[in-house]
Amino acid sequence: MIESKSISRKIFQICNTVILLLLAVICVIPIIHVVMSSLSDPVELSKQTGLVLFPRKISLVGYSEVLKTSSIWNGYLHTIIYVVIQTVVGVFFTALGAYVLSRKELPFKNAMMLMITFTMIFNGGLIPNYMLMNGLNLLDTPWAVIIPGCITPMNLIIMRTFFLTIPDSLEESAKLDGAGAWYILFKIYLPLSKANIAVIALFLVVAQWNSYFTAMIYLQDRSLWPLQLILKDLITTAKGAAVLAAQSGGGGGNSGMTVMTTKVMNYAVIVVASLPIFCAYPFIQKYFVKGVMIGSVKG
Amino acid sequence: MKKRKNLLKQIQKNQAYYWMILPVLLYFFVFSYIPIGGLVIAFQDFKPAKGILQSNFVCLKNFTDFFNSIYFGRVLKNTVVLSGLSLLICFPLPIIFALLLNEIRSNKFKKTIQTITYMPYFVSLVVVAGIIIDFTSSDGLIGGTLMRMLTGDKVNLLAEAKYFRSIMIVSELWQSLGYSSIIYIAALSGVDQQLYEAAAIDGAGRWKQIWNITLPAISSTIIIMLILKCGTLLSIGAEKIILIYNANIYETADVISTFVYRKGLQEFNYGYSTAVGMFNSVINFILILVSNRLAKRFSDTNLF
What we know:
A: mainly alpha, B: mainly alpha, flat
């Protein structure tokens, strides 16, 4: 009896391990395919269909084309500018708001909380937001991308939940020493909240780095486009590819951009655009998991 | 009277707090509440040249136009079907995944699997769209190699309406399976190991243990996540779909939010587009309130 149980248990363990391994493989295969294709020779790659698990005749043509393309560098620069400004401003104001909302017995606190959380479940939608941006003359300015999503109700809630775990006694003793609200927040609460600040900052960084939609709606001016929008243009429209071909083909001295080169170049842009996030991945993963946990306590 | 004085005193005492939160409240007022006020154009024959104040009011004409149009049934059906499928498939699988992972004893293996399966969540939508377009094209892995094996013919899957829903669900699953399981894995790790030992001594087999210990331990998490997911039943965003759909497959791919996007920002039909968007927001609002009320009934946890 016990013997048969342990055998069936072993079989289950083996099957389970295989299933999980298979799932992990399915998760990485598309990523490997893209990376390996980006390292392939355009002509060799075009002869080949299906999965690319190792480079077809290693070549860096894709990357050298990308390096020559000014609009990709410009997009990179703008993405970095948007990410940095939004993260710094966002973390600062989220900390301010969350600190106040974590105070006990503050008159109108619940009303303020309601005002903020209500925006999570009801909003004006696409056109009224567009008209507002237009009315404020923010269209085709960097602010159109930086402002939306800078302070989010979810980030406020996560930060507030964390502040609530800091013992009141710390604040009370500081108050007895004559410390004001600003001093307590910046000298006592924030130094204790480094991990939490990292969670909020990384939420903002990843969201902004990966977003294209806001930029697509609010920015007509190509010189302001973030990387993801340039990539979107390249992948989904023929025009996007043509613009890039004109830029990189000119200085290259090769026989111009062929369809095959464009394809390899697409892969290379994808890799270049995702690289920073994946370099920081172990770090990001750790804090995102933490954020999900804090969020789920209240959400 | 005394109460009022007290309140004033309280406010005075706490005034630093109000200065601190003022910019945050202003932010939400300007960028969330003013657009809500802008919904008024849903009831107007809005002309950008005339502005909100001068455009004519047309009552509910924009709404009735939408309800009577041939698009209404199509976009509503597509929205409901896509989120329904997502509820049926993308909701339970992360739970099963968490349960399978929980059976693994080696911590190192567990961590590795988690690290790898969370990864696709951090791939941007544009890149996901790029991979989808690549894989489903007639010489891609799925559209070419796999379809030729299965049917003998290469197919460009994104050109045919019947494949669109599968593409959406599979790609959603790829991106979110691991990440959505985090919350269940956390709940499972909180289960007291002694319970399992006690059950084993009582002669309970593995399945019995899962059924009687593991599942009850995470059932409240499951119920809340399920109810909250039901609240989002009509809120599929346009971000992913507009990257991969085309006019040939609107029949299955066009949802409310993509319709709003096309009518508003591509055809500049502001009043009509706003009305369709508002119809969607109001239904979402009701669904979320109802589902949240239900979540409250099942446990202390709720969103607001």
